[in-house]
Write a structure and sequence with these properties.
4-stranded antiparallel beta sheet; Transcription Regulation, Sacy, Chain A; 3 domains; alpha+beta; elongated; PTS-regulatory domain, PRD
Length: 277
């Protein structure tokens, strides 16, 4: 394996005998080295093999601007997530998560704290991913000495969820189908209430995000009803009668009986997005 490009003393692009490229990291792996020289494989700590050309090119660009230690800790988080979640993640997660963490540090250093309005839903619907997010905060604290708020656990969980969803959308047709279904549901709400939805509102953004994850959940049958959901749904059905009826239209459109849990949260989101307008 030979050195093709040097980012810094600890990160390079290496090329094997088959002309395949890899991003390789290791303490001092490029120290006093030049392009074309052999890689000291004893110093290799992490190897990034990104199959998608787009993800690979973006990751290389990211390495030009992001400190190596940020890339390293995100690698550890992603590998931990793969094992705990037992899930395949889209290669873009190496780019999106590293970029997010880097920007997060910049904002915190500037005194800017951004709260995640979806933290409640993430804890409820994606407890495994949220726990990984909490563990990621521990990794960052241990490896970088930086403290992050709980909101960042939810943000990291979102990246992991998106990486799973994007990986399950096998082609452009799948993504287009999901986008059309989301638009159809938004139209059901719009015509039921005879309103124009405010696409810049937080309620709208949360609703669309909920729908994206909603399709992922119903495909995998990840929800289980409890007595608590049944009780809350009865309360919501009485309090938000119009939103509940609108939810039933959405259920009819989908052509399948939804769990009480999904009915509950869809109704609440419909109520929020319609009330906002």
């Amino acid at each position: 394996m030979t050195i093709k490009k040097i980012f810094n003393n600890n990160a390079i692009i290496a090329e094997n005998s088959d002309k395949h490229e890899f991003v390789v990291m290791g303490c001092g792996i490029a120290f006093k080295k030049n392009i074309g020289e052999k890689v000291d494989e004893r110093l290799i700590e992490k190897t990034f093999i990104l199959k998608g050309k787009d993800a690979s090119e973006k990751f290389k660009m990211l390495l030009e601007d992001v400190p190596t230690e940020y890339v390293s800790v995100c690698y550890d988080i992603i590998e931990y997530a793969k094992n705990v979640l037992d899930a395949k993640l889209n290669d873009h997660i190496y780019v999106t998560l590293t970029d997010h963490v880097s920007n997060c540090f910049k904002m915190i250093e500037s005194g800017i704290i951004i709260h995640n309005p979806l933290i409640w839903e993430i804890k409820k619907f994606y407890p495994k991913e949220f726990k990984v997010g909490l563990k990621a905060i521990d990794f960052i604290k241990d490896e970088l000495g930086k403290d992050l708020p709980e909101d960042e656990a939810a943000n990291i969980a979102l990246h992991l969820i998106n990486a799973q969803i994007n990986n399950s959308l096998n082609n452009v047709e799948d993504a287009a189908k999901q986008a059309k279904m989301i638009q159809d549901i938004l139209n059901i709400v719009k015509y039921t209430y005879n309103i124009v939805l405010d696409e810049k509102s937080i309620s709208y953004e949360r609703f669309v995000t909920h729908l994206r994850f909603f399709f992922h959940r119903i495909d995998k049958s990840e929800t289980v009803d409890t007595a608590e959901e049944d009780f809350l749904l009865k309360q919501v059905r009485e309090k938000y009668k119009d939103a509940y009826q609108c939810m039933l239209k959405v259920q009819k459109y989908l052509g399948k009986e939804l769990s009480d849990e999904e009915k509950l949260y869809l109704t609440v989101h419909i109520q929020r997005v319609s009330k906002k307008n």
